[in-house]
Amino acid sequence: MPHEESNPACGRTLRSPSEPARSTSAVTPRADRARRLRAVSVLAVGAVLVSACSGTESSGGASGGYPDRQITMVVPFSAGGPTDTVTRLIAEPMSAKLGQQIVVQNVEGAGGTLGAGQVARATPDGYTVLMHHIGMSTAPTLYPQLPYAPLEDFETVGLVTEVPMTIVGRKDLAPNTLQELVAYVRGNPGGVTLATAGVGAASQLCGLLIERAFQVDVTEVPYEGTGPALTDLVGGQVDMMCDQTTNTTGQITAGGVKAYAVTTPERVAVLPDLPTTVEAGLPDVQVSVWHGLYVPADTPPEVVQALTDALTVALQDQNVVAAMAKLGTAPVAATDVTPQAHSDQLRQQIDFWGPVIKAASPTPGG
Ligand code: ASP
User: Fold this and answer.
1) Is 32 exposed, middle or buried (CB count within 10 Å of its CB: 0-12, 13-18, 19+)?
2) Distance in angstroms (rounded) separating the CA atoms of residues 55 and 50
3) How would you classify the pairing of strands 12-15 and 4-7?
């Protein structure tokens, strides 16, 4: 029997370092995990909306009658942004399948790492679920002191969707094409502002690719999500942004922002006139934003399976499919709605983005 220790912050049980790591474990020992999770507890005091320790009175383990009460789904970015939008789309059909209410909670800040940290230290009973995106794979490189390990501190539930990004500007920005935008930014080194959702966000990752491709710095303006960033872009308070079609399509179509390119190899059906970055001559700016659901490590497998099953049903819901299509995206293939496909993707993406980010030499907060 593995020795167990109690987490003083949450009354959570953590296994001892002597216990073998899970199959998804890369290198991080359990002792490191306990230390990291304590660290994030301290960091998060006063910074999150609701303590991860609240509402975690386990009904004696989550297996068996799971779920027998409300589930909290944490979005690590602002309400109204693209991660929030996708989460709210799937929460309703998942709730119907599970027979319990799902409450979406926005725990924004630090490029999504505050919300992820909150879920990492929550009770592993399936009542606290995280929706996160590509940022789960970039944060370990961007944050040397990241107080959780994506491959070690979470169970993967399944992939959800992969969303193209768009490069957009305020509607009265002078350039009309991507090539004109490159010339404009080069002519104003550091003088053009780029809205992002902070270091670790997809918008910031795309910003790094843009800076590298444009070979010039822009001035980043961090928000806690690209929902509020888009509002400021429409209002003309910032110059440009790179963000998901699930956030930008409405304003592109309505003329609230000027669109320059989509960052995928193919054009997007809902924005048929928008060229790809490849067509526009910047093939290195290519990124799409994959999303997945997570629960804390050590959540019972049958609970993870119940969530995977509910996610599968939600992604086959025709209302969800139609709503996603209007926003330029689609559910992932059914074969990717599995814990294994999701953990494979996470591992591959950590390996992929690490060297790319190091080459761009960002610094947290920079
Ligand atoms: N799309 C944002 C990002 O840049 C996050 C959000 O607001 O959903 O990662």
Assistant:
1) middle
2) 9
3) antiparallel
Please give the distance, rounded to the nearest whole angstrom, from the Cα atom of residue 179 to the centre of ligand 1: 25
Same domain, yes or no, for 9 and 20? yes
Residues 36 and 61 placed together within one structural domain of the fold: yes
pLDDT, tens digit, 9 for 90 and up, residues 295-331: 999 999 999 999 999 999 999 999 999 999 999 999 9
pTM summary value: 0.84
Torsion of CA 101, 107, 112, 113, to 10 degrees: -110
Residue 136 near residue 76 (C-beta atoms within 8 A): no
Q: If you take atom 7 of ligand 1, which residue's CA is the nearest one?
A: 225
List the one residue out of 141, 214, 78 whose CA is nearest residue 364: 141
- Looking at residue 321, its amino acid is V
Whether 109 maps to a domain, the answer reads yes
Measure 132 CA to ligand 1 centroid, in angstroms: 10
Torsion 341-300-291-152 (CA) sign: negative
332 backbone φψ class: left, alpha, beta (φ>0; ψ -120 to 50)? beta
Per-residue DSSP letters for 134-193? Answer: THHHHHHHH-TT-SS-TTTSEEEEEEEEEEEEEEEEETT-S--SHHHHHHHHHHSTTTSE
For residue range 243-254, list pLDDT tens digits in order. 999 999 999 999
**Test site for ligand 1: of 133, 137, 238, most ligand atoms within 8 A of the Cβ:** 133
- CB of 77 shorter than 6 A to ligand 1: yes
Whether ligand 1 lies within 6 angstroms of the CB of 290 is answered as no
Question: Both tokens of residue 361?
Answer: 């030499």
Q: Within 13 Å of residue 7, how many CA atoms lie on the same side as its CB?
A: 26
Distance 162 CA to ligand 1 centre (A): 13
Determine the Cα–Cα distance for residues 166 and 14; give it in Å rounded to an integer. 42
**191 in the same domain as 143:** no
**CA separation (Å) from 179 to 176, 184, 185, 214, 219?**
8, 9, 10, 10, 19
Q: How many domains does the chain have?
A: 2
